[in-house]
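Figure 6 in text form: structure in, sequence out.
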C-alpha cells in the first residue's frame, strides 16, 4: 500500500501575510497534477509533479507551489515547493518529450527567466521515474524545474512518501504564487472522485478551474490512437482480410472484439495480438455467411500501458455466385448448345483450372465435335468467383433400328402386329407406316420411323404373303432367367390364341432380355417349340431349330441344330398341354433345361439368334420333298442380352478446397444401359438411383465433395455387383516451394538483418500470403529477415486451398559464438589423455593454447563441437580459448578450463616372515598404506585385508598380494607379492630303552629334522635322535623342521640294562618282579625245567611275579626265558625264583 501523508494546517501566520499581498495580474494557471506516481513507499512523493502555464516573463524563484487539504481552503499557502530551490537533477529519473523534444528546457537555477505562456513542470530534483511530457507539446516552451525538496531556505514541506492524496476523503487544493501575487483566485481544487487508486492517476483543470481525472500511465505519456482504414471485402470461404491503418504513440498490441452476430458465426476475439505494420491481417471465420460483421478495435502500447479509445471496424463477406449447369446431347457429329444459370457472369473453359475463357454468358455453343467432351464453367460476381464445374456435351451414335423378320404369312391369315420397339440395345421406339396386309401374295416393305430424341434412322422391314401348303403358325424359344428361374417359352412368331405361351407377349423372345451378371447362371437357353399346319394336300415330316450366340458386333457364324421332337397332334381342337388348334395342326418341341448357360460368356453385348427348318410337302400328304425356313426373311430371330463383368471404379478429386467438383466413374459397364446404383456418402446412404451408362459403358457420379464413399451396389437386370472398398476423395493440395537468401553480415544486435525468403506456389496464379515475421509481410517474398525459422501461409484465391511452409534463414557470415567449453574426465592419471570439448557455431575456427604454449586452432564440426586431446600428460593441463572465427567474422573470447593430473598408485615394499609354522601366525606390512591384502590360496593361509595378519589353515604355499588402487583419476592398481611357505609343526616323542648294555633315549621322528638334547637346563652335545644315558634325571629333546620346533621330556629313573638273574616275590617289595622295563619287549615266554611254558605276555614290561598264566605261584626253581625284542634277535637265559 502506498504511503500518503496529509500536511498539517500550520503556518497560519504566513497565510495572513500572503492574504494581505494579493495581486492576480501575473498569476499562472495550474494545468495538471500527478497525484499517484508509480513509485511506492518513501519515494512516491518524490515522483509527483505539478504543471502550470505562465502568464508573464518571470524568474524561476518567483514561483512557489502551495498545497492543502482543507475542504474549503482558500489562500492558505503552505510553502512546499519553491522556485528558489531550483538545482541540478540528482535523481535517476529521466524526462523526454519525443513529440517536441526541441521545446524542452531544464531549469537548474532560480535565476532562469521563464517566458510568458510557457508550460512549467515543478518536480523534485531527486525523482526516479521516467516521464514523457509529449502531452504538453503545444508550440510553446516546456520548462522543467528541478527543485531541491531538502533545501533549508525556504524550507520545503514536500513529503517524500506522498504529498497528494491517492483517494482523498475531502477537497484538496493547489495554489501557485508569482512573487507578491498570491493568486488565490487561481486556486485549483480536486476531491475524492476517483474510481480506483491506480498508479498514474492525475488531475487536470480547464481554464475555468473545472477538474477532470485521467491516467496516462506511469510515464505520463500520450495514449496511442489508431485510425483504421476500410477493411478489404472478401469472398465467402476466405479466412483472412487486411485493413490499412495509421497510429500515433507506437502501439504494439491490438484487441478486436466482435459483435454478437460475428461471434455466433464463428469469429474469434483477438486479445493483445501483436500489431504488425499496416495493413493488419484479420482472421475471418470460414463458416461465416455472407454479410457485414462489425467489431471494436483498440490498440495498446506495452511500453506505457496505455490504450486507445475504441474504433469501429466492419468486414463485408460477399457471396460466391451460384452456378447450375445442364448437360446436353446430340446425335452424331455437330455442335452442342450448353446452358447454365448463375447469379454472376458465366465464363466457359476447356480445362478445370487456368486457361483462356472460350465464351461468356449463360449459353455456350460448342464447336463441331464427334465425341462426348467435357467443358468447364465458372461464375464471377464482383471479386468472388465460384468453383469450376464440369458439364458434358454428349455425342450419341446414330443407330439404325433392327427388327426380327416376320415369318411368311399365309394369304388371308390374321396379320401379326409390327413391333413398336427395335431389337437394338437399348431398343429404338417408333411407328410404322401401316399394318400388314395379307390379302395380296408377294413381299411388301413396311417403313419404321423412330420417335424423336433417340438418334435412330428410318428403316424398312419386308413381309412375305404365301399360299401355304404347309407351314408354321407359331414358334417360341425356351429361356430361364431370374424372373422365371424354372424357364418358360418366349414367343417368337404367332399371335393371339396361336401363341405358344399366352402369358408371354407376342414376340417376347425378339427383344432385349436385359443385362446379367457374369457366371450367375441367371440366363439359360433350353430349346424351342413350333406349331405347324398342313393343308389336306400337304404334309409335315419334321422340324429343326438352329441357334447361335455371338457378339452384337460379330456375325453369327455356324448355327447349332436342335431337332424338335414331335409333341402333339391337334385333337378335338386342342393340343396336348393346352392351346387351341385346327385339324392337321401339329406341335414340335424339344426342351433341355440349361442347354446353354449364356452368363458363362465374357462381358459384352450379345445376340441369341435362332431360325427353324420344317421338312414337308406342299402338294402331297405322303411325301417330304419340300423344306421351309422360318428365318425372318434371312435375318433370323434375335434376342439381345448383355453380360456384365465386374465394374471398375475411378475417381477425380474436387478441384477446390471444400468444393464439390469430385467425381466417381464406374466403368466396364455395358454401353447405354440403365443400372440401379446405391452407395454410402460417408455414413449417409445414397440411392438407389437409376443411371444410364454412356456410349463407353461409363456411369459418372458428379458433384461430390471430399469424403469417403463406400458400399457401392450396381444392379443389373438379374443380380448386382457390390464394391465394399472405400473410395476416398480429398481436397486438392496447394503445392508450393520455398527458397531463401541467407544473411550476409556478421550478425549482432546492432547489425541490420538482410535475409529473405520466397514462396513459389503452383496453382491458379492468384494468391495471398502471410509471413510470421515481425512485419507480418504479405507478399511472396519476405525481406529484412534475421536468422531464424519462418512460416508463411499461402492461400490460392481460386481454389481456396492453403499451405504452410517453413524455412530457416541462416547467415553466411554468422557472428560465431562459443556456447560452452567443458573438460572430459578430471582428475585423470598421469600418462592418460586430457580431453576438452568446445561447443559453438558449426564450421567456426577456434584458437586455443595449452599451458601457455603457442596458439593452435581447431574447427567445429557440423554439430558445432570439437575435441582437443592432449596425449599422455604428466601434469595438470590448462586450456585457454582466445578467438573464434567464421568467414570474415571473428570474436575474442577468454574461456578456460583445467584437467587435474594425478600420480599412479605404488604398492610399496612388503616386510614380514615368509615361512610360517602350521600353528603359527605372522603379519605382513607395506611401506605404503591404504592397500588391500589378499591370499592366493585361502585353503593354505588367509590374510586380513586391512591389518595384513596371516592365519595358517594348512601346510603348503600361498602368495600374499598387496593391492593399492589408483586415486584422482587413476583407474589402474599397483600390486606387490610375497610367497609364504607354511611348514608343518613337528610332533616329537621320546622313549627310553636299553640298546645293548646301554640305556638309550630315542626321539621320534627319527629323520627329516634336527635335534637338540639337554639334561635339565644344561644343553648336551648330542645332535642325533638317540642319547645314551649315564646319569639319572630329566632329559629334553627339541626338534626343528624348517624352522618349526617341538620338544619332549623324559625323566630317567633307571638306566639298568642287565636281565635279572632271579626274583624273590615274597611281598617285601624288593625284587618282586622280573623287571625288563628298559627293554622293548615284544613278547616274553617262561618255561620250567621240563620245557613246559608256564607264562607268556606280549609287550612286556614288568609284570611277571613268579606266577603262572593261570595265576598259581610257581615253585622256587630255575626257569628258562625267551625274550623277543623289537627288531633284535631273541634273548634266552635262566632266571630263578627264590622267595
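Output sequence:
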Amino acid at each position: 500500500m502506498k504511503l500518503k501523508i496529509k500536511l498539517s494546517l500550520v503556518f497560519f501566520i504566513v497565510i495572513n501575510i500572503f492574504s494581505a499581498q494579493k495581486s492576480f495580474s501575473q498569476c499562472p494557471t495550474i494545468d495538471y497534477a500527478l497525484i499517484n506516481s508509480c513509485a511506492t513507499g518513501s519515494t512516491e512523493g518524490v515522483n509527483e509533479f505539478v504543471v502550470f502555464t505562465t502568464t508573464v516573463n518571470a524568474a524561476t524563484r518567483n514561483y512557489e507551489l502551495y498545497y492543502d487539504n482543507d475542504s474549503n481552503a482558500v489562500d492558505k499557502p503552505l510553502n512546499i515547493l519553491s522556485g528558489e530551490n531550483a538545482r541540478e537533477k540528482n535523481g535517476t529519473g529521466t524526462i523526454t518529450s519525443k513529440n517536441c523534444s526541441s521545446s524542452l528546457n531544464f531549469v537548474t537555477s532560480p535565476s532562469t527567466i521563464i517566458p510568458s505562456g510557457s508550460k512549467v513542470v515543478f518536480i523534485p530534483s531527486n525523482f526516479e521515474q521516467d516521464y514523457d511530457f509529449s502531452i504538453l507539446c503545444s508550440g510553446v516552451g516546456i520548462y522543467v524545474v528541478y527543485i531541491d525538496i531538502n533545501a533549508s531556505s525556504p524550507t520545503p514541506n514536500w513529503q517524500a512518501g506522498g504529498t497528494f492524496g491517492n483517494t482523498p476523503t475531502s477537497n484538496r487544493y493547489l495554489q501557485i504564487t508569482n512573487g507578491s501575487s498570491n493568486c488565490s483566485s487561481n486556486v485549483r481544487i480536486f476531491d475524492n472522485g476517483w474510481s480506483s487508486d491506480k498508479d498514474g492517476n492525475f488531475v487536470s483543470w480547464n481554464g475555468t478551474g473545472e477538474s477532470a481525472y485521467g491516467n496516462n500511465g506511469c510515464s505520463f505519456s500520450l495514449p496511442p490512437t489508431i485510425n483504421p482504414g476500410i477493411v478489404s471485402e472478401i469472398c465467402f470461404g476466405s479466412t483472412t482480410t487486411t485493413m490499412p491503418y495509421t497510429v500515433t504513440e507506437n502501439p504494439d498490441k491490438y484487441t478486436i472484439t466482435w459483435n454478437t452476430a460475428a461471434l455466433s458465426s464463428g469469429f474469434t476475439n483477438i486479445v493483445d495480438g501483436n500489431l504488425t505494420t499496416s495493413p493488419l491481417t484479420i482472421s475471418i471465420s470460414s463458416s461465416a455467411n455472407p454479410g457485414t460483421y462489425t467489431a471494436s478495435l483498440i490498440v495498446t502500447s506495452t511500453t506505457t500501458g496505455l490504450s486507445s479509445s475504441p474504433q469501429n471496424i466492419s468486414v463485408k463477406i460477399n457471396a460466391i455466385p451460384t452456378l447450375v449447369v445442364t448437360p446436353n446431347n446430340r446425335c452424331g457429329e455437330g455442335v452442342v448448345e450448353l446452358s447454365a444459370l448463375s447469379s454472376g457472369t458465366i465464363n466457359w473453359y476447356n480445362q478445370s483450372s487456368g486457361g483462356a475463357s472460350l465464351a461468356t454468358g449463360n449459353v455456350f455453343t460448342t464447336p463441331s465435335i464427334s465425341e462426348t467432351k467435357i467443358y468447364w464453367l465458372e461464375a464471377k460476381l464482383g471479386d468472388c468467383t465460384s468453383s469450376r464445374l464440369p458439364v458434358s456435351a454428349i455425342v450419341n451414335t446414330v443407330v439404325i433400328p433392327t427388327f426380327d423378320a416376320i415369318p411368311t404369312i399365309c394369304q388371308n391369315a390374321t396379320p401379326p402386329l409390327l413391333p413398336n420397339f427395335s431389337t437394338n440395345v437399348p431398343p429404338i421406339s417408333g411407328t410404322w407406316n401401316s399394318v400388314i396386309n395379307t390379302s395380296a401374295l408377294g413381299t411388301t416393305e413396311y417403313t419404321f420411323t423412330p420417335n424423336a430424341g433417340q438418334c435412330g434412322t428410318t428403316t424398312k422391314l419386308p413381309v412375305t404373303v404365301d399360299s401355304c401348303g404347309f407351314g408354321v403358325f407359331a414358334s417360341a424359344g425356351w429361356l430361364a432367367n431370374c424372373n422365371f428361374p424354372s424357364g418358360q417359352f418366349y414367343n417368337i412368331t404367332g399371335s393371339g390364341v396361336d401363341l405358344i405361351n399366352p402369358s408371354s407377349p407376342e414376340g417376347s423372345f425378339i427383344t432385349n432380355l436385359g443385362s446379367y451378371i457374369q457366371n450367375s447362371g441367371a440366363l439359360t437357353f433350353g430349346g424351342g417349340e413350333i406349331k405347324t399346319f398342313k393343308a389336306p394336300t400337304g404334309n409335315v415330316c419334321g422340324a429343326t431349330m438352329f441357334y447361335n450366340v455371338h457378339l452384337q458386333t460379330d456375325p453369327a457364324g455356324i448355327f447349332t441344330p436342335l431337332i424338335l421332337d414331335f409333341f402333339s397332334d391337334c385333337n378335338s381342337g386342342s393340343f396336348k398341354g393346352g392351346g387351341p388348334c385346327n385339324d392337321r395342326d401339329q406341335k414340335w418341341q424339344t426342351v433341355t433345361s440349361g442347354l446353354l448357360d449364356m452368363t458363362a460368356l465374357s462381358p459384352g453385348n450379345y445376340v441369341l439368334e435362332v431360325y427353324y427348318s420344317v421338312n414337308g410337302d406342299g402338294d402331297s400328304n405322303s411325301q417330304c420333298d419340300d423344306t421351309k425356313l422360318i428365318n425372318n426373311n434371312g435375318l433370323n430371330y434375335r434376342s439381345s442380352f448383355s453380360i456384365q463383368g465386374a465394374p471398375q471404379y475411378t475417381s477425380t478429386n474436387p478441384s477446390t478446397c471444400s468444393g464439390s467438383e469430385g467425381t466417381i466413374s464406374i466403368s466396364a459397364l455395358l454401353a447405354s444401359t440403365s443400372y440401379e446404383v446405391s452407395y454410402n456418402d460417408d455414413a449417409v446412404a445414397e440411392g438407389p438411383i437409376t443411371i444410364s451408362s454412356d456410349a463407353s459403358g461409363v456411369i459418372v457420379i458428379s458433384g461430390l465433395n471430399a469424403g469417403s464413399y463406400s458400399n457401392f451396389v450396381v444392379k443389373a437386370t438379374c443380380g448386382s455387383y457390390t464394391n465394399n472398398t472405400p473410395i476416398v476423395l480429398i481436397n486438392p493440395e496447394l503445392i508450393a516451394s520455398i527458397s531463401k537468401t541467407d544473411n550476409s553480415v556478421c550478425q549482432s544486435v546492432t547489425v541490420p538483418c538482410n535475409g529473405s525468403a520466397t514462396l513459389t506456389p503452383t496453382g491458379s496464379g492468384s494468391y495471398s500470403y502471410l509471413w510470421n515475421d515481425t512485419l507480418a509481410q504479405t507478399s511472396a517474398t519476405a525481406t529484412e529477415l534475421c536468422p531464424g525459422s519462418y512460416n508463411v501461409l499461402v492461400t490460392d484465391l481460386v481454389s481456396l486451398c492453403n499451405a504452410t511452409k517453413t524455412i530457416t534463414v541462416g547467415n553466411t557470415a554468422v557472428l560465431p559464438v562459443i556456447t560452452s567449453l567443458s573438460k572430459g574426465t578430471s582428475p585423470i592419471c598421469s600418462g592418460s589423455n586430457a580431453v576438452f570439448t568446445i561447443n559453438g557455431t558449426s564450421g567456426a575456427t577456434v584458437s586455443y593454447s595449452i599451458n601457455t604454449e603457442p596458439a593452435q586452432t581447431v574447427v567445429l564440426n557440423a554439430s558445432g563441437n570439437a575435441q582437443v586431446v592432449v596425449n599422455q600428460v604428466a601434469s595438470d593441463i590448462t586450456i585457454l580459448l582466445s578467438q573464434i572465427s567464421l568467414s570474415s567474422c571473428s570474436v575474442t573470447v577468454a574461456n578456460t578450463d583445467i584437467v587435474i593430473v594425478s600420480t599412479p598408485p605404488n604398492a610399496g615394499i612388503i616386510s614380514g616372515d615368509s615361512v610360517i609354522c602350521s600353528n603359527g601366525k605372522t603379519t605382513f606390512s607395506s611401506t605404503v598404506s591404504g592397500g588391500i591384502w589378499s591370499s592366493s590360496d585361502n585353503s593354505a593361509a588367509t590374510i586380513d585385508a586391512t591389518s595384513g595378519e596371516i592365519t595358517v589353515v594348512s601346510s603348503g604355499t600361498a602368495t600374499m598380494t598387496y593391492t593399492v588402487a589408483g586415486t584422482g583419476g587413476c583407474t589402474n592398481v599397483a600390486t606387490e607379492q610375497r610367497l609364504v611357505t607354511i611348514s608343518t609343526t613337528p610332533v616329537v616323542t621320546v622313549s627310553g630303552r636299553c640298546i645293548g648294555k646301554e640305556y638309550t633315549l630315542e626321539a621320534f621322528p627319527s629323520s627329516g629334522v634336527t635335534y637338540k638334547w639337554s639334561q635339565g637346563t644344561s644343553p648336551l652335545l648330542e645332535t642325533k635322535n638317540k642319547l645314551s644315558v649315564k646319569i639319572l634325571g630329566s632329559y629334553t629333546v627339541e626338534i626343528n623342521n624348517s624352522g618349526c620346533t617341538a620338544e619332549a621330556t623324559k625323566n630317567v629313573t633307571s638306566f639298568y640294562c642287565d636281565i635279572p638273574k632271579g626274583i624273590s616275590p615274597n611281598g617285601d617289595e624288593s625284587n618282586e618282579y622280573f623287571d625288563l622295563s628298559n627293554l622293548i619287549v615284544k613278547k616274553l615266554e617262561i618255561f620250567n625245567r621240563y620245557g613246559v611254558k608256564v607264562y607268556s605276555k606280549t609287550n612286556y614290561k614288568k609284570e611277571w611275579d613268579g606266577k603262572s598264566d593261570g595265576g598259581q605261584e610257581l615253585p622256587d626253581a630255575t626257569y628258562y626265558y625267551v625274550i623277543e625284542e623289537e627288531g633284535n634277535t631273541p634273548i634266552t637265559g635262566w632266571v630263578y625264583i627264590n622267595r
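Caption detail: Residues 1-24 have pLDDT under 50 and may be disordered.
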